[in-house]
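FAQ
Q: What does a multi-component entry look like?
A: The components come first, one per line:
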Amino acid sequence: MDTMTGLFVANACVWLGLCAYIFFVARTQSAVQKRLAQMEALEQNEHE
Amino acid sequence: MRHNSFMLPLVIIAFFAMLASNYCIWLYAPTEQIMGHVQRIFYVHLPLAWWGLISFFTVCVASIAYLKTRKWFWDNLAAAAAELGVLFAVLALVTGMIWGRISWGVWWTWDPRLSTTLVMCFVYAGYLLVRGMGLSRERRGMVSAVLGIIAFIDVPLVFFSARMWRSIHPAVFANKDGGLAPEMLYTLLVALAAMGVVWSIVLCLRTRQLSQLGRLDALAGSREE
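Then the predicted structure of the entire assembly, as tokens:
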């Protein structure tokens, strides 16, 4: 591996790792929103 | 989403911080004379390693605070910090391995700094496994808080390993200015700050998300009863 390839691979790994974690957080957040909406709908149904 | 209003400025701040950091790394910092361009890995490797260590320090502090106050905020903060710490430590190891392959000729060597860092990664990966074991919330909080404090023993070892034992890993800032040219030092400081901004934002978001998840689980549990 030459120096430039190493540098690009290292940077790619960092960005991939960070983006993967942020993607995981974003997906979990959409699941949380979905559950929250279900709970609210359930509560609304009970009130009616 | 209800919190979009405060998320957007944070994302913009993180974006510009990373932009400034990458400008300094790729265009401002001079090329090191002996190692050449590969030395630029240093500007991501060191911030990842340091913020990883700060994450584990946060786990320890939050664990102590949880045991004292029994407030879920501290438990959530410890969990979020542990996740980020493992991510940053693994990325620091990966970037270090690539750098090592080019400058030392090997992917891995059982050097004190590398070995203690690997052990630290395994210990905190274990911490996250314990958290995911499906214990009750109270029990999980208690067990992981104790584990979060004990696990911190390895963190000072990682930091001081290159100074205490014979190590081929350089101890950065072992002397006053770290032997860095001013442009290199400024680049490092900008990279450290940018990584810190990203770390803080993701830590806040994940902590808040974990608290939402906890509340939802508690709500679902009370409905079932």
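Q: Is there any commentary attached?
A: Sometimes. For this entry: Helices of chain A lie at 3-47.
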